[in-house]
Every structure is written in C-alpha cells, then in structure tokens.
Amino acid sequence: MLLAVFAAGVDNFMAAPMLLAIGDGFGQNLAAAAGVVAAYTVVYGFLQLVWVYASDRWGRLGVIRVGLALASVATVASAFAPDIASLIVLRGIAGAGFAAVVPSTITYIGDKVPVEKRAGTLSDLVAAYAGGAAAGIVCGGVASDVTSWRVGFAASAAMTVLALLTQLRYARDPVEAPRALRAFTRSLRITVSATWPRVVALLALFEGAVLIGFLTFFPAALQEGGASGRVAGLVVALYGVAIVVASRPARRLAAHLPRPVSLAGGILCAGAGLAVAAFSTSIPTMAVATVLVSMGFALAHPLIQQWATIVIPSHRATAVGLFATALFVGTAVTTQAVAPLLDTVGFGWVFGAGAVLAGVLAVMLAVAWSRFERATAHDELP
Questions:
Q1: Is pLDDT at 116 greater than 70 in this prediction?
Q2: What predicted TM-score, i.e. pTM, was given to this entire model?
Q3: Helix (H, G, I), strand (E, B) or coil at 47
Q4: 288: domain CATH number?
C-alpha cells in the first residue's frame, strides 16, 4: 500500500515545478497554467467522499486498485495533451483516480491498526507520500528543464502503473456488511451534523491552504529568481526528503509534548518557513524555507490525521473522507487565489500572507484540541 501512496505523492507534486514550462508550451501565463494544479486538487478533494462510500461498499483495497487504474490512463493521456484545456481536464481525471488512494489507506489503517500504534503507522504513511512528493518535484523540474514537461507526466504514469501491478498482488479485504447508499448518506449526514468532525474539517481546510497551497509556488518563485527548473526541483524536493527524515523524530517529540503544543509548534514552524520565503526567494533562503515547512508538516499533519480517525469512530471512513476533502479543497483555494496576485504583489507578499495565516491556524489548532480533550473527558462527543 505504501507504494500506491508514494505514487500518489509523485503525481500530486509533479506539476508544480513544470507550471512555467507548461504555460510557455501553450503560450499561457502562470495563472492559466496553475489551473492544471487547481483542477487536480479540486477534483481530488471532492471525490474523497465518493471513494469512501465505494470503499465501504466494495472494500478499501479494491477501491485503491480502481483508482490507480483510472489515474494510470489519465496520466498517460496527460503526456499527450494537445492544449491546456485538455490538460486541465485530464489532470482533473487523474486527481479523481488518485483520490481513492490516500483516504482508503488511512481508513484501512484505522480499521486494522490499534489506536495506540496508529500515529506511528500514519507517520510512515506521511513519509511514503513525502518521499513520492520529493521524487515528483525532482522529476518534474528535471523534465521541464532538460526535456519536456510531457516526459514528467510519462514518468508519473510509469510509477502509477507499477503501483497498480504491485497492488494486484494482495488479496482484497473482505467487506462483511457492505453499506447501501442510504446508509452512507445517513453516515454523511450524521458526521456533518456533529460538531467535532466539522471542526476538524475546517482545520484541515486551513492546513491544506497554508501547508500545501503556498508550497505549490515555491518552484516558480525560484525560477523567477533565475534558477533552472532542475535546480528549483532539487531545492523544493527538500520538502519530501526532510519529511522522510523528520517523521520519526517528530513522532517521538510529539509523544513527549502536550498535543496542543505539538500541533501549534508544527504549524508555527511551517509559518516560519513561509516567512523566510517572504524575505527572499534566493536558493539558500528557499532551501531553508522548504525544510522548515516540511518539518512543521511532519510534526503537525500526522496528529491531525489521527484526530480525523478518532473524532467519530462509528463513522470513521466518512470522517476521514471529509477531512481529506477539506484538506485538498483548501490547497486548491490557495492555488487559484494566489496565482492571479503574483504579477501584481509578487511572491514576497504572498508568502508573507501565508506566514500570517499559519499563525492564525496554530492558535485555532491548539484551542480546538484543548476543547476536544475536555469534551472527550466529559463524554460530550460527537
């Protein structure tokens, strides 16, 4: 399953360092090319709940296979897109396929792994995704600089096909009591009407906007400053590498800190990275910024993921789907909102705004978790 998550990370981050090359190839500006990323993340986000229902109905592993198959076809086709409109549509379809992978894996972990070991397993999941992100960023940067952005999508397609073939080796997980559509809609209604799943979804929306959305423009910022696509890809790939390196130490650190401190500290670390990027987009400062953002993500994100698996245990799959939807919708909102501003206010002001939002999110997370703990202690859930 980790290879499927790795492939999802590759494809999700592949396009970011290729945006300028895609725009140039089709005679479009950065704002238009950013639609490639926005289409992917919007569809990826909104399809989470559809796949959640499918995984409840036909099993987590079977759904992952179907998603990888759809993503394989769309990613191959992306390499041959004749115009930017076609590419945007194809990337949306690829996002629809990959949307099945991570939430189904998280829910599978929630189903099979004891709660006391879940945070560690989720940290490994984050590390696999981050490793894929690093590989995707490097591959996208090298492809756009040395050959063509089309080669980047072809490489992602090859990885996706490999993940699909590997996934076929595993037996499907049995579904003892498949949920009917009526039962799923009832679960969704219960989950959305409960206070804490809504709170976690709102926090995930902000997390996606701050910790992932602004990172999309790191390669473009470096390239505007004169770095090649290859160098920009290598610098921003530190994001994935640092998460892989920091995931286990971050898990140990989180185990010794109060949860509000871990959550707020992780987000503030990422905010510090955005502040560094706001100060300068030179290669050294962007390298530091990327590492800080990744370290903050490694500390905070697994804890928020785990929170989504326990916030309403009787409807875990739906809660995880809602969490994932909010996370990537937040990413898409930032991508679409920021791209048109870059020509007028520049990267510095945009990253500075992200740093401010990170500070707000840190306070929100610390306060929300403290209240959640009190509600749990007094049996006030959901």
A1: no
A2: 0.79
A3: coil
A4: 1.20.1250.20
